[in-house]
Every structure is written in C-alpha cells, then in structure tokens.
Design goal:
Number of strands of chain A: 4
CATH architecture of the largest domain in chain B: 3-Layer(aba) Sandwich
Largest interface: A-B, 27 and 32 residues
Strand order of the largest sheet of chain A: 1-4
Helix content of chain B: 25-40%
Strand order of the largest sheet of chain B: 14-13-24-23-22-15-16
CATH topology of the largest domain in chain B: Rossmann fold
Distance between the termini of chain A: 23 Å
Shape of chain B: globular
Number of strands of chain B: 28
Number of domains of chain B: 4
CATH topology of the largest domain in chain A: de novo design (two linked rop proteins)
Distance between the termini of chain B: 52 Å
Oligomer: heterodimer
Number of helices of chain A: 8
Largest sheet of chain B: 7 strands, mixed
Number of domains of chain A: 2
Radius of gyration of chain A: 21 Å
C-alpha cells in the first residue's frame, strides 16, 4: 500500500465535473439537460457512496448516449459525451465501485483504515483526532498487563482519514475493503 | 403569395409556404410530431426536445418546432434514434413528476400521459428525484398550482406574456428551475388577473381550476360550444358538463376567456339560487308550483288592468336575456296586457347607445367587435379602467398595439392601458367629455375632418356643430396634448372603445367618428350585460297600442301611474337604491312580480318571485358587440321553464295566445324583423327616438347632430366636493354597495 495521496478515482472525477457543469455552464433553456444532469449526479453519488447497482451503470450510459441527442447546446452534448467516454474507457473501475472497492481510495464510503500494531506506540492521538469515536483503546501504561491496543471499529469509521494525519508513527494504513475482509481475524 | 417549398417528410412530399416550421409542415401532411412545449399560437421555444426529428445530411437531431423548412429537405420523424431520444426525455420527466394519474384532474387529457402510453415509456427507469424544499401546492384562489407536477415546458409563461399579465417566468436556474411568479409571491399579490389562460395551455395537471376538482374526469366531460354572456363582447366559450353539472368553461376559437368567462359562472351553481317560484304569504314567502305562480300573476295583472286600465301595468326586462325573450316580453305587454309600458332595464345602464347610434348613422354598421379592435390602426379608449373592466378589450388593444397601432387613452387613472398608450390623456375625473370636445374642436380647427363624408350627409354643414373652445383649466390637460391626440386620431382605421356610456360621452364619440368619416366598425361600446343592443331595440315590437309607453326610468319614478310591475332579471333597488323613490315606488306597488336568479333586493319586495335560467342554461340569440347576431346554446342543463314559455303561458292566461310552439318560431319572427345584409343589420322598427325615421333617406342630416347639453360641469364638481359632502356620499349605503359590487 502506498501512503502517497492517490489520484481521484474516475467516478469521483466525473461526478465533480458534472457538479461543476451544473453550477456553472448549464443553462435551463431545454428540459433534458437539467434533469439528466441531476439524475447523473444522483446516480454517481450512489456509485461512489457504495450504494450503486449494476442497473445504474446502464442508466448512466443511456443518459450519455441520449442526452447528446436531446440536449439543445454543445455544452450539454459535450458533457454527455464526456460521461460516455469515461464509462466506456473505465468500465472496470466503475464495476469495482459497484463491488465496493475504490482502488484509489477517493471514495470515503468505500475506504477503511487499520492500525498496524507493530508500529503503533499507543500514544492515543488518533483517538483524539477521530470525529466519530471510531477508535477504541487506551494509552500505553508500562508494566501493566492488560493494556488495550488501539483498534478502528469498521462500522463507525467513515473513512475521513484524520487519524492517518494525526499519527506520528505512521501506524495507520488504508485498507481496501475486500483485502481487509479476507484478513479479518476470526 | 409567398414562395412555396417542397420537402419530404416520412416518404411524403409536402409543399408549404416559405418560413413554415418542420412541425407545422408535418401537421399539414397529417403527420403528428409529439410536443410538450409547443402550443399553436404561441411563439415556439424548443424547450421540451420531444419534437426532435432526423434530417438527412445533418448529424444532430433537429428541433422541428423551431427549425424552418428548406427546399429538398428529407425529414424522418419516426426513426429509432428519434423515438429513443423522445423516450429518454419522457423517462427523465417521469423522474421529476410525482404524478398519480388516478387522482389527477388532468388524467385523460394529459399530454405526458398520452405520450408515455404512445412511446411505451419505462416510467421507473430513473429514480424519482424530488429536490428538497420542493414547492408543493400553492394556496391561490381559483387557480391551483401544483408545481411539483410542472414539467418546465414554459407554455404558461408564454401565454401569460401574450394575453395575461406577464407575471410568470422561470425562476432560479439550472436544476433548481421553477415556473412561478416574481419572488414566488401568491397569484393575488403578483398582479394576476385570473384569466386562466395558463390552465388552458398546461399540458399536465400542474395548473387546474380549483372549482373543477372532483366534479368529473376528463373523459366524462361533454363539451358544448356557446358564448359567454357576462358582458357585451360575447366571447366564444366551450363549457364542459359532466353528470348534469358544469365542470368548467374554457376558451373557444378565440383562445381567450377573461376571469368572468373562466370562473364567473359559479353563480349558476350557487346554492342561493331560487329553485321554486315563491308567492308572498304575509311577511314571508312560500314555495309554490309554476302553475300556481303564473295563475296568481295573470289574475293580478288582469284585475289591475280591469280596475285601472292597461297603462297602469308595466314591464322591465334586463339586458342579460336573449332577443327571443325580449321580443316576447314586449309582445306580452303590447298584445297580452295592451300597454306600451315596457322597457329594457339596459337603458338605465346606458343602453340608449343603440338609439344614439341609429340616430346618427341610421344603421348599426359603426359597431365594432373585439376582432375589429384588434385590426385597428388607431384606438381611442375612453372610460376609467376600461382594460381592467373588460379584459378581452384590453387584450385586443394589446394585440393591436403589438402590431403597431397607436393608442390614445382618456382615463383619469394610471390604468393598465395607460401604460400601453401612445398618448395618455389624464383628465380630472368626470371631465372626459370635455377632452373629447377638445379633440373635436381641434379636428375642425385644423381641417382634419372628412369634408367629403360630411357633404354626403344630408344638410351637411359643419358650422352648425356648436363646440365651444377647449378649456384646459377644467380638465388639467394642456391644449397641445389634446391637439396631438386629435392629429393622431385623424389617421388610420380607428376604433373608439367606450366603457363610459353616458349619453354625452357617446354623442361625442359618435361625432368624432362622423367628423372623420368612419361609418363602419368604429365604435366598441362595452356593456356589462350580454344583450344590450337587443334589449334596446327588440323591446319595441309590432302591434303597438296608440299611446306611447313609459320608459323604465319613468315607470320607476315615484309619481308614475304604474300599479303593477313585472321585472325580469333586473334589480332596480339593488342597483339604484340611492335614487330617490325607487324603493318606495316598488314597495307601494299593488302588485310586483320579479323574475331573477336570486332573491334580490327587488325580489324581496315582490308579491310573486319567479326563478330564472342563467346564461348558459337557456338558448337564444343575442347581438354581439359588432352588431352581429350570435347564437347562445343551452349548454348547461336548464332548471326552469325557458323564458319564452313563461311569457307565452302568461299571455295565454291574459287571453292572448301567442301560438309559438318552439323558440325556433320566435327566432324566425325575430329574424324577419332584422334583415342582415352587406350593410349590416337593419331594422324595420318604428323609430327609436321621437325624431322620426331618417334611415330610409340615407345618413341623417349632420346639422341635426347637435351635441346634447352635458352634465359635465356638474360632474367636474365631484372633484371639488367638500369633505363633508364626501362623507355624506360615503355614508350612503347604496353608494358603498355599488362600489363593493
């Protein structure tokens, strides 16, 4: 796992582009463009939020093809074409998202972290940084037999990554959902 | 003839004039292209993208409602690509249209529903997305706006600009766009005049009439064409009836109804309407059968005729009824009772205009309809807030001005028409007549009058018309402005729209027409009743007894000899309660019969009250604003015997059988009296005025066309009333009631 800041995943990039289009260039001089953009944004938000279904990709593809025909101006057509290209060229990445994986780690809903016990000094700074109280454990006390090491509770974590920034020992790493599932202790 | 263009649509060769859009061309070839935002008569906007078509040689799909035809174009309207694009748009609309067709009033007439069926649309392809804070149903009177059903086609916006008040528009932008008023104000605060044009064009159930709710589904409605009877313009109107009840009215060919035609019929379904004849029983009324009521009326009329002579019996009929009813009413009194004391109450509201027009021109050709007004090049509007009182006239003027007509408005208030006006003359209240006189003065002084036309009149001599010099201090309008207006008026095809129907104003308007030689379609006199012309003319029938009759005004005078009165659809007490003696006269009568829709103030004094059918419930003909005979059909189910039957039966009981078996026979008789030629309707009635019949000799002598002495000097004093005088005016209940009406 690389600790560098990864590039944005494709669905997120397209989603942001659509939002920018909606807030900026889009006019309301024809009917399909606003509704289709709103739909595409809603559908992509489902995809990056881990709530996507296989049907959603078909819906997005339909928007990309038909909006290009139905939109009044070149801006709408370009937006539709850009969406279509992205869907076509990055089909696997979209499908990965449907399966709950965002390889680049952009999609917070699909990303989790874990504390690497070998590197953790049990200082407790991560627990203080966590906004959702997802990290349990207690600071290290020498000679105490029942020290509680820090663990990130998967269900509470929303993937914000503040613990990673807070950790002075670089002991928190990002895990891809599936990998973690395989390594979950019984 | 403009250039013709030949193109190919769906394998059909179509030839259309240059400048036609593809959609229109397809329509001519009977190929229907679906559309949601396009509406015939409104400027196309190309918003909905449903009318997309494929043109050979063009990569992008074309919008057929905005794209014009070109020579040799090959158009396909039903390819897979086109259908799929249309389906896509419909799917998207369904994702923002939380409509439940089972309870929607529009179901059955909804364009979205129709195309969804035709294109077999997967309604649930895209998840429903209703944005947060989505506007729900607005709490407006008359018009229900359920904006969540809006599909942003923009038809209502365009129609509101064209013929409403222009209050609707797209608000916000992009994905948040909504169609509403400025600052999303309620319609009442936004300046809406509730013409309901937006409802007529809305393709979905977003805009519906509030009063049609739960009265019937679209497929249960039986449309019937008739005419509106709520003012003298007589607009085309279609009425939809279901289960024997009126559901709604909508515009006919004309495409426009004002608030009166659209929503004003609700008095017909009011629960306060009279359902049975009433006879007086001490201080109260009791319900009785029609037979009993008519017998009582006939007995009393006969008794009084016997005891005091026929000229103590009189009849007054309002201007809301058909020519046939008016004719028969006159006959009932002349032949049945044997008196000439029968008059139209329309005269009280200024319907002697008919007499004035006939007197000046000899025929009714000067009358103009709303359509003539639309074609006019110069319009002179006289009357306070004419546009507000007669929205159809306002629309006609607006359209004419849009086509480049010049508008002169004489109105003391800053009305809507004043904003459209080329020249707005704003006289002190009550001095409009002086302004018109100033215009006449200028026309004569500057030599702008039509001497040729005047010399064709008998005994012509403009010198005999006595018009004093214009007094600017009286009206508050400078000489220069009046002169400018006069110069403007002298040019082009002109129509004078008149809602101020005082004798002196009408006389000056007619003088203006005559001076400028406009003997055709120049006067649009606006009355708040359906049949003012018929009321004024047909009340004079044949078989006239020797002695002259009393006018309605004379009959209602407290010193009149009338002892028994029959009042039909008029309410002198309610309308002229302030006038001395009207109420006293009516309550002192030996016998009073009132026939009306409601128990009016006059009816409360009556001995017998007869119920009446409303304007949509009885058939007959009326004279429209242009002097043409218009037919009203009985569109709504009648509740009572028609007026002609009531009058025939009464006449029979007074020993004069009229012998009419149907209203058609009466209509034939009425038509005999009116011969409609190229010249416009002419009448072979005795003269309407006492000055003798001049019509046979062509135009009457202009020299006789003296302007009646005005009462404006008295009226102009209204603005100089002392506070104490104003207080007494205000405290008079009759005056304030008139205003409230």
């Amino acid at each position: 796992m690389s600790s560098e800041i990864p590039a944005k995943c494709e669905p997120t990039r397209v989603l942001e582009a659509l939002k920018e289009f909606a807030n900026d260039a889009m006019c309301d001089r024809c009917l399909p463009c606003p509704i289709a953009t709103r739909q595409a944004i809603a559908l992509l938000e489902r995809v990056v939020g881990g709530r996507g279904e296989a049907e959603d990709l078909a819906r997005l593809t339909r928007i990309s093809i038909r909006l290009a025909d139905a939109a009044r101006c070149p801006r709408g057509e370009e937006t539709a074409n850009a969406l279509g290209e992205s869907l076509q060229n990055n089909k696997e990445e979209y499908e990965e998202h449907l399966a709950g994986r965002c390889a680049s780690g952009t999609c917070r809903a699909l990303v989790r972290f874990r504390v690497v016990p070998e590197r953790c000094t049990m200082c407790g700074l991560c627990q203080e940084a966590c906004p959702r109280g997802a990290i349990v454990g207690a600071p290290y006390v020498p000679y105490l037999g029942d020290n509680r090491p820090y663990v990130i509770r998967e269900k509470k974590c929303d993937g914000c990554g503040r613990c990673v920034e807070a950790c002075p020992a670089h002991a928190i790493e990002r895990v891809v959902k599936e990998w973690r599932c395989q390594n979950r202790s019984p | 003839m403009s250039k013709q263009i030949t193109l190919n649509i769906d394998e059909q060769t179509v030839t259309v004039p240059e400048g036609t859009t593809i959609l229109e061309a397809a329509g001519m070839a009977e190929i229907e292209i679906p559309r949601l935002c396009y509406f015939e008569g409104l400027p196309p906007s190309g918003t909905c993208r449903l009318c997309l078509v494929e043109i050979e040689g063009q990569e992008r799909l074309a919008v057929s409602c905005t794209q014009r035809v070109k020579e040799g174009m090959v158009v396909h309207t039903r390819t897979e690509r086109v259908s799929e694009a249309r389906r896509f748009v419909l799917e998207l609309i369904w994702s923002t249209h939380p409509g439940d067709c089972t309870t929607c009033e529009k179901s059955g007439a909804c364009d979205l529903q129709r195309y969804t069926y035709e294109y077999d649309v997967d309604k649930a392809r895209y998840p429903m997305y209703v944005p947060e804070g989505s506007p729900g149903t607005h709490d407006d009177p008359l018009i229900e706006r359920n904006l969540s059903l809006c599909i942003l086609c923009g038809r209502c916006i365009r129609v509101c600009r064209e013929q409403g008040q222009g209050i609707l528009d797209f608000m916000q932008r992009g994905m948040a766009t909504v169609v509403t008023t400025s600052l999303d104000k309620p319609l009442l605060e936004s300046g809406c005049d509730f013409c309901g044009s937006c409802i007529a064009v809305c393709p979905v159930g977003c805009l519906v009439e509030r009063n049609r709710k739960l009265r019937g589904r679209e497929w249960e409605l039986e449309p019937k064409e008739t005419r509106c009877g709520l003012c003298s313009l007589g607009c085309d109107l279609v009425i939809d009836v279901a289960h024997g009840r009126i559901v709604r009215t909508r515009p006919g060919k004309d495409g426009y109804l004002c608030v009166r035609g659209k929503f004003g019929w609700d008095f017909l379904v009011s629960e306060d309407r009279l359902s049975q004849p009433l006879v007086r029983d001490g201080d109260a009324f009791r319900e009785c059968s029609w037979d009993e009521a008519l017998n009582t009326v006939a007995q009393h009329l006969a008794k009084i005729r016997e005891a005091r002579g026929p000229d103590t019996v009189g009849g007054v009929i309002g201007g809301h009824v058909s020519n046939e009813a008016i004719y028969l009413f006159g006959k009932l009194f002349r032949a049945g009772v044997g008196t000439n004391n029968v008059d139209s109450a329309a005269g009280l509201a200024g319907a002697n205009v008919a007499a004035q027009v006939l007197d000046a021109f000899g025929n009714l050709r000067p009358l103009s309809s709303a359509a003539d007004l639309e074609r006019a090049k110069t319009i002179l509007s006289v009357g306070p807030e004419l546009g507000e009182s007669y929205p159809r006239a306002r629309l006609a003027i607006k359209r004419a001005v849009g086509k480049g007509a010049k508008l002169i408005v004489v109105d003391p208030s800053e009305s809507e028409l004043a904003r459209l006006a080329t020249i707005h003359l704003k006289p002190k209240a009550g001095t409009e007549v002086v302004v018109l006189e100033g215009v006449i003065r200028t026309l004569i002084d500057e030599g702008l009058h039509d001497t040729e036309f005047l010399s064709s009149c008998e005994g012509s001599s403009e010198g005999t018309m006595s018009v004093g010099s214009y007094d600017a201090s009286l009206t508050g309008i400078a000489d220069a402005e009046v002169q400018e207006a006069a110069k403007l008026f002298a040019k082009g095809r002109a129509v004078i729209a008149l809602s101020d129907l005082r004798e002196e104003t009408v006389a000056r308007a007619l003088a203006l027409l005559m001076l400028t030689g406009r003997s055709k379609h120049g006067l649009l006199a606006l009355f708040p009743m359906a049949n003012p012309w018929g009321a004024a003319m047909l009340i004079r029938g044949d078989a006239i007894p020797e002695t002259a009759g009393l006018s309605a005004q004379q009959m209602l005078d407290k010193d009149s000899p009338i002892a028994a009165l029959y009042v039909v659809t008029a309410d002198p007490v309610g309308s002229f309660g302030g006038k001395d003696g009207v109420k006293e006269k009516l309550s002192s009568l030996e016998f009073l019969v009132v026939q009306d829709l409601f128990l009016t103030k006059t009816a409360q004094l009556a001995d017998v009250v007869l119920p009446l059918n409303g304007f949509l419930e009885e058939e007959g003909t009326v004279f429209g604003a242009g002097g043409k005979l218009l037919t009203m059909t009985a569109a709504a189910p009648a509740r009572h015997p028609p007026l002609w039957q009531v009058f025939s039966k009464l006449s029979e009981r007074l020993d004069h059988a009229m012998g009419y078996r149907s209203i058609r026979e009466i209509r034939t008789k009425v038509k005999e009296l009116i011969s409609e030629g190229k010249e416009g309707p002419t009448y072979r009635f005795p003269s309407l005025t006492d000055k003798g019949d001049t019509r046979a000799k062509g135009l009457p002598p202009f020299s006789r066309f003296s302007l009646p002495e005005t009462s404006w000097s008295a009226r102009s004093q209204i603005s100089t009333l002392t506070p104490a005088q104003e207080a007494t005016l205000d405290s008079n209940p009759a005056n304030t009631e008139e205003v409230a009406k």
